[in-house]
Write a structure and sequence with these properties.
Layout: H1 16-34, E1 40-41, H2 42-53, H3 60-75, E2 77-82, E3 89-94, H4 108-124, E4 128-129, H5 130-139, H6 148-160, E5 164-169, E6 176-181, H7 183-188, H8 191-202, H9 210-226
Antiparallel strand pairs: 1-3, 2-3, 4-6, 5-6
Helix pairs in contact: 1-2, 1-3, 4-6, 4-8
Length: 227
């Protein structure tokens, strides 16, 4: 019986001088793309580096690792690999947890809409049906009945940026769309910040909502231990 030869992994280290220009270009590319908040495909990074710097594909891992170090040290950002239907994708988030919502959403109205949406999902402790979300936002004075632009922010823009997940559940007459937290929100938005906002609005202490308080403080503790 013939034996298959197992290819041993290469232990050849890449000298930084070989990839220095590629690392700089990779950082520049990521920082330029970061403003859109749209996930960056690994294939896009590979194609860009190949076109601009003629970076060999077997150097890609080393380049991305070194670029991530620069992002953390110089810009205070980090790359996070996220789930994707095909291929590998990254989002760029703050390297350290902040005590409020990062100023990545500059428009004040959009910011309030996003905070309210995430807060409602968090306090509900479950995916929120689309119609229930719109009802909540209308009652909160953040959405008008015919405000299609703001609804598109929720279903398209914030979803593409991965602040929200907007997905169909069920089949046939039972089918409906729901909102959940997206991966960027889980990385960027402190739950304790949202709970404090809730407490201020209702003149309560955050631990008034025991389950949410427990989850938020545990998240803060874990982030502190890993920082």
């Amino acid at each position: 019986m013939s034996q298959k030869r197992v290819k041993k992994p290469s232990n050849t280290a890449i000298d930084y001088s070989e990839i220095e220009d590629s690392v700089k270009e990779c950082v520049r590319f990521i920082v330029c793309r970061e403003g859109s908040k749209i996930p960056i495909k690994r294939s896009e990074i590979i194609k860009h580096l190949s076109t601009v710097c003629e970076t060999p594909s077997n150097h890609t891992n080393a380049v991305i690792i070194e670029a991530n170090k620069v992002l953390k040290r110089v810009y205070g950002f980090k790359l996070v690999q996220v789930k994707a239907k095909s291929g590998i994708q990254y989002i760029v988030v703050l390297n350290e947890e902040c005590e409020s919502l990062p100023s990545t959403v500059s428009d004040s109205q959009e910011r309030r809409l996003l905070v309210a949406t995430l807060l409602h999902i968090f306090m509900t402790a479950a995916p929120v049906k689309e119609e229930d979300m719109y009802k909540f936002l209308i009652e909160a004075g953040l959405l008008e009945d015919n405000d299609l632009a703001s609804r598109k922010l929720l279903t398209t823009t914030f979803t593409r940026q991965m602040y929200l997940q907007y997905s169909k559940v069920g089949e046939g007459d039972l089918a409906r769309y729901v909102f959940q937290w997206g991966e960027r929100a889980s990385e960027e938005v402190p739950k304790l910040f949202l709970l404090n906002k809730m407490a201020e609005a209702f003149e309560k202490t955050p631990d008034h909502w025991y389950e949410q308080y427990k989850e938020a403080t545990e998240e803060t503790r874990q982030n502190t231990n890993t920082s």
